[in-house]
């Protein structure tokens, strides 16, 4: 079988020495960008080149980490159906993104790829994908739907000629050529004219883009950003305004459809951190859900302050925090207890309201069930590129409370949710955004909104339904796929005319 032979040839050739970088054939005008599924398994990446009489082909080679996954993929692959609708165009888009990592860019990239795949006419262009921009996570890959995995493998194997290919570098600009950390560069061989055009897809969570990133953006033919907020902040920071194009992000309203799921048992997967000292036994009552990486930007401190000041054990409410580590250890329960002590939140006679932490990995396919188990979604973030969990919650018809700044301003309104007022802008004190500004959402206004969602449930349901309607209308995959395909077609036409 082709797969096993290619696997074994790759296995044996991965013993080869990596090529001497100084001898990289930058100027090939013709070669086939060829792909293999093996990128899924691997930790070490070696670029190497082979030459035939007809063309020079570049193959990405890797070293195996586990045989078990290899066997799994092999069986998956032999079952996959071959596509009946073969595209009849040589035009191609190479989409490079952190496909095999969890995180914002990854889920965004998947949503584009899936939207384009399901909605693109085969005569427009073909798509091939490559992992780039972040570390690979086997756990994340395993959590993807089987259909998605099969499609990924199929797309990864699509071969494209660079001179007929537009590259999309979908990641933070630090990963673009030459990358500031170890990753496959994008575009793969720099900006030397092999590819028809290169598009940078990126976003930012503060009020500006740093100088280094501005320069990287300006090397691109286009810079795609998700919101008006970014168009303004990128241009203000010095990115060439003729290159900046707003391309919103799709949300899979078919997958995130509240009618299709039973709720997940949250108590089963969550760890109780606060509350439960009073005797109740009445079930959870009203459930707030928040989903975020544990970092200051996400405003977990604002959320806990508002929640613990507004509610007590007497209120029939629970707050579930689905979180994971971001440059920190994972002991979130302790962090919350420490924060409560530090802030001097006294436990009243009625006890604390319930706070649960979910720090297990929730597979992509289980996310809708998680939202389904909540009554409202809340994220008092200090800044978002887009705010993926927010739109997913909206697609699931949940009433959402989120900060009225940055990404969410593109879709969150008084009609479809609860935009949270920003009290002031504050300076980012640490990390790579140091010195930038972001939003400080109002704790008092958050208390008011959380209370309102609980006490006016009918109103909240109306907004939740409107939220889903707006997601379907504005960000359904077929809607956004058309926008993306039109932009790409336009660039092909421009380049051909020249
Ligand atoms: C790209 O290169 C190949 C091989 O040299 C050639 O056959 C093809 O016509 C080229 N395509 C374009 C659009 O120039
Ligand atoms: C590709 O197929 C479509 C119909 O699916 C047709 O309209 C188009 O002309 C074809 N293009 C080429 C280059 O053959
Ligand atoms: C949200 O912010 C926009 C400006 O970005 C403003 O026009 C709107 O009134 C704000 N809404 C609320 C509820 O604060």
From TrEMBL:
SUPFAM superfamilies in alphabetical order: UDP-Glycosyltransferase/glycogen phosphorylase (SSF53756)
Domain of life: Eukaryota
Segments crossing the lipid bilayer: 31-51
Pfam families: Glyco_trans_1_4 (PF13692)
Annotated keywords: Membrane, Transmembrane, Transmembrane helix
Sequence ranges of Low complexity compositional bias: 1-14
Chain intervals for the UniProt region annotation (Disordered): 1-22
UniProt cross-references to PANTHER family, sorted A to Z: PUTATIVE-RELATED (PTHR46656:SF3)
Protein name: Glycosyl transferase family 1 domain-containing protein
Organism annotation: Brassica oleracea var. oleracea
Lineage: Eukaryota, Viridiplantae, Streptophyta, Embryophyta, Tracheophyta
